Amino acid sequence: MNSRSTVVVVGGGVIGCAVAYFAAVRGLDVTLVDSPRRGRATSASAGGLWPMGESVGLGCGVIFAKARGAGGHGPERLPESFLEFALRSNAMVPGLARDLRADTAIDIEFERTSLLFVMYDESDEAYAQALWEDYPEQRHLFEWLTASELAVAEPAVTRRVRGALRFHGDDQLNPYKFADALRAGARARGARVLAHTEVTRVVVAGSRVVGVETPTMSIGCEVLVNAAGAWAGQVGE
Fold first, then answer.
1. CA-CA distances (angstroms) from residue 95 to 37, 84, 91, 179, 216?
2. What is the pTM for the complete model shown?
């Protein structure tokens, strides 16, 4: 069986479903091909929306430091462009949550919360102080908590701390429902979703990708988006 779409998206996690949804919103003919596997990021840790926490190194900064071969202690801060991108992206989520609920009736459980960097020793405190001083434009998103203030805010946290730096605007949602809503929204906007389907071959003509093959069909395309996450390398090969 042969078919054709303007855009084929490989991978049905949060990223793949988001690409399919926004492409469909723009009126493009989209096919999403998804083969769920254990260990995908959507089911592991895709629920945190941490523009400040990630940018100052409390998430991707660890990976960034490894990639650069950076030495020293503490997380590696990401480039300023990453912070700008993350803040702008996070500001779009409430509107996206409303749109998805209108399109699909799915509540992605978006919540305005915060992230705590808990300080256990002098090095933690020095790192937090540096963040406080180095991000004056984002100071309104920071809140310095003493040990006693932290105990009131989070009674379950150990008392053997010096305090915490709170990042306001670092929010959360339900990653499972987010992916489900994006997938359902893409369908509602006309996208075709092939669930439990594996891409077995990428079809190339000259220097261009012109389609993909699955065990049961061939799909021609103008654009292929490889959103297979940890398996993206296999798709690329």
1. 30, 18, 8, 16, 38
2. 0.83
Residue pair 64/81 in contact (Cβ under 8 Å)? The answer is no
Contacts of 109 (CB under 8 A, 6+ apart): 173, 174, 177
DSSP conformation letters of 80-147? HHHHHHHHHHHHHHHHHHHHHHHHH------B--EEEEEE-SHHHHHHHHHHHHH-GGGGGGEEEEEH
The tokens describing 151, both together, are: 């105990």
Which token pair is 189?
């906007």
Decide if 22 contacts 7 (C-beta within 8 A).
no
Over residues 8-39, the pLDDT tens digits come to: 999 999 999 999 999 999 999 999 999 877 66
Domains within the chain, CATH numbers bracketed = 1-46+174-237 (3.50.50.60), 48-173 (no CATH)
Residue partners of 37: CB distance under 8 A and separation at least 6: 231
